[in-house]
Amino acid sequence: MTVIHPNLEAVDPKMSAEGVSVYYGDKQAIKDVSIAIPAKYVTAFIGPSGCGKSTFLRALNRMNDTIPSARVEGQIELDGEDIYSNKMDVVQLRARVGMVFQKPNPFPKSIYDNIAYGPRIHGIFEQKGDLDGIVESSLRRAGLWDEVKDRLNDPGTALSGGQQQRLCIARAIAVDPEVILMDEPCSALDPIATAKIEELIAELSSRYAIVIVTHSMQQAARVSDRTAFFHLGEIVEYGRTSDIFTNPIEQRTKDYITGRYG
Amino acid sequence: MVLGLALAGWLSARSRAWALRANSGSRLASLPNYHGWYVGLWIFVPTIIFVFIWDAISPNLVIQSVLASPAADGLPAIDSARLDALREARAVASGALASTTNPDALPMVAPFSDALSQYRWIGIALTVIIAGAAGAWSYLRVKPDFGARTRVERVIMAMLILASLVAVFSTFGILASLIFETFRFFEMVSPIDFLFGTFWSPDPMANPDNPDPTRYGAIPLFWGTLLIGAVIAMIVAIPVGMMSAIYLTQYAHPRFRAWAKPALEILAGVPTVVYGYFAALTVAPMIRDIAMSVGIANASSESALAAGLVMGVMIIPFVSSMADDSIAAVPQAMRDGSLAMGATTSETIKQVLVPAALPGIVGGVMLAISRAIGETMIVVMAASTAANLSANPLDSMTTVTVQIVAMLTGEGSFDHPATLSAFALGFILFLVTLALNFVALSVVKRYREAYE
Ligand SMILES: Nc1ncnc2c1ncn2[C@@H]1O[C@H](COP(=O)(O)OP(=O)(O)OP(=O)(O)O)[C@@H](O)[C@H]1O
Ligand SMILES: [Mg+2]
Fold first, then answer.
1. How far, in Å, CA of B290 to CA of B217, rounded?
2. Could you tell me which residue, B28 or B42, shows the higher pLDDT?
3. ABC transporter domain location, by residue (chain A) (predicted)?
């Protein structure tokens, strides 16, 4: 059972999960998880390796559909709509709930085409000029514009790791999603690139609901407003980040954040 | 026998190494096995080289000693009769022939069998001596601090180098002979007439000293080759190969894929003659009937279309397995990235996977083309041997390789320009396929670099 911190203020959830379980074949990776993810906040998922953080994150935009053995039970809603219902168009859902992966994965295309990819497939621009505008504003919001504005036609793979990751974030925000899911977005980056991404997250949270999975306690403390501690497929404790880190209720949470195991 | 000796060396050296290890109690610089290999190789390599040399020279030594015998005085003076007699006598002596009726050969049998057995014993003795010497020398070097391991490594490397040189040198050898004959041809028929002439009908019976250059225009052949191998076949192979690769990598159930992919690759193993039957007996008449039924009266039963279609089927596996490999090699993260952007599977394939895999796909197509334009059998059986410069795929047409065969097996003498033209054709074809392979390999290489 999840322990919810008493002074967690109730806000309208952007996304909410009710009794969600995820199975890979016979193996249950997520056990009856319920959580509300508020808009315009950064929510961090922390927990030891293999506890199901990525699995749960992927359930939020139905990326688990791409794994044949994966099966999701329970209810996940986006703005009150059940995302696993037949009426929900997966393609639309993923445009509204974007995702940034652990390893930067720019497409083997030019920087420009990487950003333009989403707007093109969703047809969310009128003319070529609009597309240029979307590319520029996405790159600006990702803090990458000044570094790449002279070489938009270079391949995205030619950028440094940190730049590639910001390119992937720019690519995700180019379709103007409502929620951005980030799975350990800084784990392949050095501290300077990490600091840039963290700054970016702070900025983006004024517009989007952001969920970030991280193994770095400091990072969770720095960037997030709320933190959920996962353990063995369950959310053990959920509350304001400051509460979780300063006075955790559950023993397992205490042990984890003080580095006793994990 | 050589192997046996080597094995003995291997065993004895190994046991000696074990014994050394047990006696001194110290660690050997190399494992006993390596000492075994070291001695074994030392015995095997020189001995096997000697055996080959001996095989080559001993027949001559035998003949010499036979000719030196008194019985040789009775041999006929005429060269061919003399050689015949010698050959028969040798056959009888070595047991390949039961007896001979050749009166000249009979007296030679006894000296032959003497000489043969004598030299065989000499050969065996020398083999044993060499093996023993090499073995003894290397055996004595088996000491605790001896680095047999690195030396065995060196020998193995040398053998690998040798093996690859065989391939390289035979390529050069083939090329050299091709170039030589091509030059002879171009002395008789100018390269300009050959490369730009539009009429191909060499006459192997014409006067070889004064060939008619207007009959040696190779353009119809290259046109036929291109149309059949690079156009019609590719129109079949590229879409079918690509689509099956995409289906197999992206949509198919793993169990279906495990079954279908090898099945597809079996297509590549079907002998081309079988495809030829199929083209000539099934596809070509079918095309003719269809052409007739839509009102094309003069459709021939041998058409470029039939050959090209069947050839296309033949090379589907080349295209699809290269495409399959390179699509499967696109990192999963790329696919996830696109799907997470809200792209559908087919958008992901079209916009991300295929572009990312394109160099590999292009490489596969290039290899397929070079395979197709080198193909002979299907064309011989389905598209005839008549050179025809025509844009109509229903016409009969021929290709470079078919003409090479036709010219080499024709009635012309070997020096005749019609025969030699086969080498010129082969040379040009070689250059074309070489260029294609070169482009294909460099494209594939660039693609590898992009992902590492
Ligand atoms: N594709 C899959 N097929 C089968 N089992 C899987 C698959 N992906 C993950 N799992 C299992 O599900 C459990 C949760 O994995 P998940 O990747 O969600 O953990 P995580 O918390 O993200 O770990 P990490 O911090 O190491 O990324 C693990 O036990 C893992 O072995
Ligand atoms: Mg994970």
1. 33
2. B42
3. 15-257
Taking CB atoms and an 8 Å limit, are B334 and A98 in contact across chains? no
CA–CA dist A32, A45 (Å, integer): 16
Q: How far is CA A195 from the centre of its chain?
A: 17
Instruction: Please identify which residue in the block is written with the tokens 């000697």.
Output: B50
- Check if A51 has its Cβ closer than 6 Å to any atom of ligand 1: yes
Contact A193, A162 (CB under 8 A): yes
- Residue B433: what residue type? T
CATH class belonging to A3-257:
alpha beta
Q: In angstroms, rounded to a whole number, what is the distance separating the alpha carbons of residues A148 and A157?
A: 13
Q: Which of B341, B346, B352 should be substituted to probe chain A, the one whose Cβ sees the most A Cβ atoms within 10 Å?
A: B341
What's the distance, CA A139 to chain centroid?
Answer: 18
Strand partners, A226: A43, A240
CA distance linking residue B216 with residue B426, whole number of Å: 14
Atom number in ligand 1 closest to CA A47: 21
What global pTM score does this model have?
0.69
ipTM: 0.89
Q: What are B252's two structure tokens?
A: 């198919």
Domain boundaries, given as residue ranges, for chain A = 3-257
* Token pair in block for residue B354: 């295929």
From the CA of A248, how many Å to the nearest CA of chain B?
34
How far, in Å, is the centroid of ligand 1 from the Cα of A68? 14
Question: In B, which residues are within 8 Å of A110 by CB distance?
Answer: none
The sign of the torsion formed by the CA atoms of B209, B212, B215, B218 equals positive
Q: Is the pLDDT of residue A178 over 90?
A: yes
Structure tokens at B339: 């799907």
Written in H, E and C, the secondary structure of B156-181 is HHHHHHHHHHHHHHHHHHHHHHHHHH
Within 10 angstroms of residue B11's Cβ, the number of other Cβ atoms is: 13
| Residues A209 and A178: beta-carbon distance below 8 Å | yes
- Average the pLDDT over A29-36 and give the result: 94
CA–CA distance from B164 to each of A1, B157, B171, B435, B440 (Å)? 67, 11, 11, 22, 22
Residue A233 DSSP code: T
For A22-36, B107-121, B156-170, which range has the lowest pLDDT when averaged over its residues? Answer: B107-121
The model's pLDDT over A94-106, given as tens digits with 9 standing for 90+, comes to: 999 999 999 899 9
Q: Which two tokens stand for residue B309?
A: 């279609």
Does residue B43 register a pLDDT over 90?
no
Cβ-based contacts of B334 with chain A (< 8 Å): 105, 107-108
Q: Answer whether A172 touches B (CB < 8 Å).
A: yes
Q: In residues, how long is chain A?
A: 262
Summarised one tens digit per residue, pLDDT across range B412-439 is 677 788 888 888 888 888 888 888 888 8
Query: Per residue in B307-342, pLDDT tens?
Result: 889 989 988 988 898 888 888 888 888 999 999 998
Distance between CA atoms of residues A69 and A50, nearest Å: 17
The pLDDT tens digits for A148-166 are 999 999 988 889 888 999 9
> Which residue, B142, B109, B178, B147, is CA-closest to B29?
B147
Whole-number Å distance between alpha carbons of A248 and A232: 18
Q: What is the 3-state secondary structure (H, E, C) of B274-326?
A: HHHHHHHHHHHHHHHHHHHHCCCCCCCCCCHHHHHHHHHHHHHHHHHHHHHHH
